[in-house]
Amino acid sequence: xxxxxxxxxxxxxxxxxxxxxxxxxxxxxxxxxxxxxxxxxxxxxxxxxxxxxxxxxxxxxxxxxxxxxxxxxxxxxxxxxxxxxxxxxxxxxxxxxxxxxxxxxxxxxxxxxxxxxxxxxxxxxxxxxxxxxxxxxxxxxxxxxxxxxxxxxxxxxxxxxxxxxxxxxxxxxxxxxxxxxxxxxxxxxxxxxxxxxxxxxxxxxxxxxxxxxxxxxxxxxxxxxxxxxxxxxxxxxxxxxxxxxxxxxxxxxxxxxxxxxxxxxxxxxxxxxxxxxxxxxxxxxxxxxxxxxxxxxxxxxxxxxxxxxxxxxxxxxxxxxxxxxxxxxxxxxxxxxxxxxxxxxxxxxxxxxxxxxxxxxxxxxxxxxxxxxxxxxxxxxxxxxxxxxxxxxxxxxxxxxxxxxxxxxxxxxxxxxxxxxxxxxxxxxxxxxxxxxxxxxxxxxxxxxxxxxxxxxxxxxxxxxxxxx
Length: 469
What we know:
This protein is α/β, with parallel strands linked by helices. It is 51% helix and 11% strand. Strand 1, helix 6 (158-169) and strand 2 form a beta-alpha-beta unit. Helix 1 (12-31) runs antiparallel to helix 5 (112-144), helix 3 (50-69) runs antiparallel to helix 4 and helix 9 (270-306) runs antiparallel to helix 11 (368-374). Mean pLDDT is 84; it is low at 38-48.
């Protein structure tokens, strides 16, 4: 998620949106005369207010087209040529929208040349204000030292050094480098990587953290991601210059330097997050009320009769942005001792008889609906890993793809599970395919896909899976 900081600069985008909408509608009143026109498919009352109709139409489709084109996604590192490209795209898209509206009229008074003049005048004004605001902000940063982002850079590689030079030489970008850290004996750095965590602990004003990801361990990456999430600052990654860039993370270019950050995936859109959370709460409540309310007492007796120990097995797992949480399961083993790096294997002697049934049918996972209700998990999502497994898996998976997987809440069930990639990891392909399906789910999420996965999981509960042991 991209966190926005600052005092007033965040008001610029809403101002530009309002200004552009006012321009296209005020000039429409000047250039167009709809009074002689007739629409094929609207009532007579609306026909008497064609300008009002155009205003409604233009506002709706301007917002839709500008959102799809990302017309207002202009950042401090965006180049002028990219802004011109956005203007051309929006001009062509809105031109089609206007001609489509006029096509609904039979009037001969609205000529194509008039429409073209309207579009040219409108976009001339829009272009002038857009570029003026862009360069005004650059001047504000350069000469008045305003609208600054406080950053730190982690790493000593070529990319990290190039970013350091860019920040120093391009004052108009508005970045203030507060410190640099790397495992190096050079005096050019504020301290080593471990010292950076103490620095961040004492300085909460940092807006962005730039990490040379190939120089960091998985634990260090986890710690930076967790810090960024808790303190609402942005974390970005500097890849090796000779490395192919992943398509899973958002890539921005600071001059010619690629910088990777968490993408704005549909699953983390505010409306979609709300929709998924409502679904999670309703579904988990239904399971808790209609299943767990009678299943828990029965299993309490059966589990206690066969072996000593608690009803629930509680263990730490990594959630969204590597946040740790207590994950609940029905206890299925004779011992509750956690042995790092070990899986339950086929015919494992630790599994009780009732535990074998619970694991075969995945009923041992049902207490995780309490985690869903608490907000630690979702009904559907990538399965959460134990902390030790997270470290092990990250060594076999590209770090950027692994970080992408932790960009959403983990789930009680997931696409990888219904495809058979669950339980014991016997070889590298097992974890690689698991991550592949998890990332596919994140990129292609929809409520329909969630329902499909839930339905398939329910079928698997009854028929079992050979990997469930």
